[in-house]
Specification:
The protein has about 375 residues and is of the alpha/beta class. About 45% of the residues lie in helices and about 15% in strands.
Length: about 375
C-alpha cells in the first residue's frame, strides 16, 4: 500500500522536533507494508527533494525566500490572522501545496492521501482526493481543532473537509469529543507515536529541578508554572526548553516573582538533546489547557520522569491521576504548587508513578502500535471507497 502524507510541519532533518511524530509513524508503517511519501513546505537550507530516515520528502516553494516563514514556526494561524502579507502567502501556500501534491501523486501513485491537520493539509487533501479519485484520511492534532472552534468562518470549511474524508482520526479522546460537537461525526482515536528507542530511562536525577518543554504562549501555561514555582514551599530550579512570542513577558514575570535566578531559558532544542533533560529532572510540568494530546508527557514517562499536568484536553489520555502522574485543576496555581511540593515530598519522589506511566505509554504510544492502528485505518478507508 502507498500513502501520500500532506503536512505543513515535518522534520527538516533527523532529530528535528517539528512534526517528529509523523516521521516516526512513516518509518514504523514500513513494517505494515505501507510505503509513505511526504509533501511538506520548503524553508531555509532545505532541499526540494530529500530522504529522511529512508522516507522521501518533496518540499514545495510557496513564496520568495524571505516570505517562506509560515511553516515550522508554530504560529501559522496567528500570522495569517494578524497580517495581510501572511494571508497572501497562505493563498500561495495552498496553491503550491496542491501542485506539489499532484506532482507527487503522479510519480508516486498512492492508494490514498493522509492529511495531517485539517488546515491546510486537509483542505488540499480534499482537492487531491477529488481530482484523483482516491480516499482521504484526515488526522486532527489539536491546534487545528482550536481554529475550527474559535474562528466561525473556519467551521464551514472544517465540516466540509470532515465530510469529504473517508476516515477522520484524532490523537486523543478529548479531541474526538470536540470534533463530534463541531461536525457531528465520531472520529477514530489513534494517537501519534513516540520514539521508544530515543526516550529511555537512565542518568541521575536532580532532586530539586523541574522541567518545562513547549511553546512559550498562553495556551501552554508557562506563566502559571512560574507563579507556582514562586509559591512552592520547596526550593526548586526550573529549566524551560522552547521559544515563542511570550518569552520576553515571561522573563519579566520571573523578575517580578523574584525567581529569575532559579530559571534557565534553554531555547528550542532538537529531540536527541531532550533526553538528557528528561532524565535529570525531578518532574516534567505540563500546565497546558486544551492540549491536543501532550506528547512531551509521553516522552517524559518513556524516560521514567514523573509528570504533573493540568487536568485538561488530551493530557488525561496520558496522565491518570495518582496512577501514572498527578493532575490538578486547570488554572489553579495554588493547587499546582501544592501538587509539586507533595510530589517532591514523597519517599520515592514519584518514581512509582513514573514507572507505571512508562509501562502504560510503551503499550499505547509505541511506533509499532501506532503503525498497526493506522494501517487498519487505511484498509478501512480503502474498503469504504470501493463499497
Amino acid at each position: 500500500m502507498k500513502v501520500l502524507f500532506l503536512a505543513h510541519s515535518f522534520p527538516r532533518s533527523s532529530g528535528d522536533a517539528a512534526g517528529s511524530f509523523l516521521l516516526r509513524l512513516a518509518v514504523a508503517l514500513r513494517d505494515q507494508n505501507v510505503t509513505v511519501q511526504v509533501v511538506a513546505p520548503h524553508a531555509d537550507d532545505l532541499s526540494i527533494s530529500e530522504e529522511i530516515e529512508g522516507i522521501p520528502v518533496e518540499r514545495f516553494r510557496y513564496a520568495p525566500r524571505q516570505w517562506e516563514n509560515l511553516a515550522y514556526s508554530g504560529e501559522m494561524a496567528q500570522r495569517v490572522q494578524q497580517s495581510w502579507s501572511a494571508r497572501l502567502a497562505m493563498i500561495s501556500f495552498l496553491g503550491a501545496d496542491f501542485v506539489g501534491a499532484i506532482r507527487s501523486r503522479r510519480r508516486f501513485e498512492p492508494d490514498l492521501v493522509h492529511a495531517h491537520w485539517w488546515f491546510p493539509g486537509g483542505l488540499v487533501g480534499t482537492w487531491v482526493s477529488g481530482l484523483s479519485n482516491i480516499p482521504l484520511v484526515t488526522t486532527l492534532h489539536g491546534t487545528d481543532v482550536r481554529i475550527a472552534r474559535s474562528v466561525p468562518a473556519a467551521r464551514t470549511v472544517f465540516r466540509h473537509i470532515v465530510k469529504q474524508s473517508a476516515v477522520v482520526t484524532t490523537v486523543s479522546h478529548w479531541l474526538a469529543s470536540e470534533v463530534h460537537s463541531l461536525a457531528s461525526t465520531r472520529p477514530i482515536v489513534a494517537p501519534m507515536p513516540v520514539s521508544t528507542d530515543l526516550f529511555t530511562p537512565g542518568g541521575v536525577r536532580e532532586s530539586d529541578k523541574l522541567l518545562f518543554i513547549g511553546r512559550l504562549n498562553d495556551q501552554k501555561g508557562t506563566a502559571d508554572l512560574l507563579r507556582a514555582v514562586g509559591a512552592m514551599q520547596t526550593h526548586v530550579t526550573l529549566d524551560i526548553i522552547g521559544d515563542g512570542p511570550a518569552r520576553t513577558e515571561l522573563v519579566e514575570l520571573t523578575t517580578a516573582l523574584g525567581i529569575s535566578g532559579r530559571v534557565r531559558w534553554l531555547g528550542a532544542l532538537p529531540q536527541p538533546e531532550l533526553v538528557t533533560h528528561y532524565r535529570s529532572a525531578a518532574a516534567l510540568v505540563v500546565p497546558s489547557t486544551g492540549e491536543g494530546l501532550g506528547l512531551v508527557a509521553v516522552e517524559a514517562l518513556m524516560c521514567r520522569t514523573p509528570v504533573v499536568a493540568y487536568d485538561s484536553g488530551g493530557l488525561v489520555d496520558v496522565v491518570q491521576h495518582d496512577r501514572t502522574g498527578i493532575l490538578v485543576p486547570p488554572g489553579d496555581v495554588t493547587a499546582l504548587a501544592a501538587a509539586l511540593d507533595a510530589l517532591l515530598a514523597r519517599p520515592d519522589r514519584g518514581a512509582s508513578l513514573a514507572e507505571a506511566g512508562r509501562m502504560y505509554v510503551l503499550s499505547a504510544f509505541a511506533p509499532e502500535s501506532a503503525a498497526q492502528r493506522y494501517a487498519d485505518v487505511y484498509r478501512s478507508a480503502l474498503a469504504s471507497s470501493t463499497s
